[in-house]
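Board notes (copied after class):
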Amino acid sequence: MSKKKVTQPISKPDVATSRPVATSVVFKVRYPLLWLALAVVAVYGVSTHFSLTELDDSIFIRDFHLYNEDLTNLVTSFHRGLFDAVKDPYYRPLFMDSMILNYWLADHGQELAKYHIVNLLLHLGSVFLLYGLFRKLAVKELHAFLLCLVFAVHPALSQAVAWIPGRNDLLLAIFVFSFLIYAINYANNGKLSALLLSALFLILAYFTKETAVFAAPVAFVLLVFVLNKKWNDKNCLLQYGVWAACFVLWYAVRATATIQTQISPLQVAHDFLGRLPLIVQYIGKVILPFNLSVFPTQRDTSLQLGFLAIFFLTAAILLAKQKSPKIILSGFAVFLLFLLPVLFVPNNLNEQSFEHRLYLPIVGILLLLPQTIILKNKFTDKQTLIGGLAVVALLSAVTFQHEEKFEDPLTFWTDAAETSPHSAYANMMLAARLDKAEFNRSCELFRKAYQLNPNEKYLNYYMGEMLQKKDSVLASEPYLLKEKQVSNYYECDFYLARVAMEKKDLNGAIKYLQDYLKADPANKIANTNLLLLYIDTKQPEQARVQVKAMKDKGVEVPPQLSQQLGV
């Protein structure tokens, strides 16, 4: 950091009195990007050693390994849903492509550290771009630096960095920030290259996440209300047309994708009203980020810190002098516009209030902070820097502590169950992690989850599995059959085969194992059991076919069975 003297050409020297030219001292941050990079690495470097959390990351890395192996799926991603090719409302092609490329970079998914390193680098890129955006918006250099430091280490954003699937918001931010920067450039200079680049980044943002639909309205707010451009300026009008064309292109491609969105408008409207308190909760997590959770729910998140944060923010605005009401309102508008998609998510699709969704909205709050007494006061730049660094150090300590909860599945789901005790899914997932180490506690958690929501996806499967481990095989059947209706989870077939064998229905057991092996063809136990069933039901030809299939898949065939069949 240094101070630099800048001559201000206010007036010519007064010859009669021989007064010197007026000068002022401007505090300048030297190498701001270097300091921002060091902050990101210092806080998030430890995350490169984390494993999976078993929340979606295992799906995209482990379960999708065959999909990731095929590089032609870089195109297929634009024509399918996220979790399921046809029965999925989520459309995230660029996220899927990033996982394919990361899969190859990480030695076919074996090196998890490389997934976390990519997340860290994407976060670093977002921080750099945000700094550039704030400077384009004429935010004072010192203020832009401190605000980006806060963004770099803020605890509420740690889920986007430490949790591998959180990269979708990192990618979105990179594309949105780039779009906004070039939109401002075109409004200022009218260069065609700026217009084309802004359109490119807007399209990329659309194909990353639906939240990008609000990027263009945010650009309008920044251009007209923050930078005071005329809304009907020639350069602005042309951009509106380009933005509309980008939306039409994205919508047309999305319409060709095999996704299903069966969401009732009435249900969306009902859930929207019920989700409005999330605004208060999210503001609380921005200003007072001390009630964080790896798996937050609206029900288990307190509103008190949110209201307290709103009080502090309101007081900070009112106490500031010479503030800009337009920038303050613009900041709130940016926050709410980027938060709107969260409010429109129906509860039956996703009831979590994940903190990584704050990654873009928080920019609106940061934008208005220079209009509050926090940064608009009588302190010198040096004093402001010292105070800002103290706040950043506190936030970094909170982030460092919180991000460690993403280290492994047991740590992750322990925190999830503790901070969201009314979540059936969190209790179920913790129970599944404790299955071998603490079986009795695991059973208690499964029963608690069942009381909270007996229709929770996968819960009936776990209930059936638990009963079979307690030698209540026949009692497991209703749960397993119900899970087949809820999710059609293939693991149910393995345990239903055992139910069928218990009921002496050997042909039924054969059918269940055949269905199971379609999803997990190399499972040794299932293959061997199917072979035994073919022998027991006197189907020697089918048994020989099964032996050949096992050998082709590299599954060991018990020698005594090979001898018995003469193969």
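Comment from the instructor: Residues 423-519 form a domain with the Serine Threonine Protein Phosphatase 5, Tetratricopeptide repeat fold (CATH 1.25.40.10). The chain has a mean pLDDT of 92.
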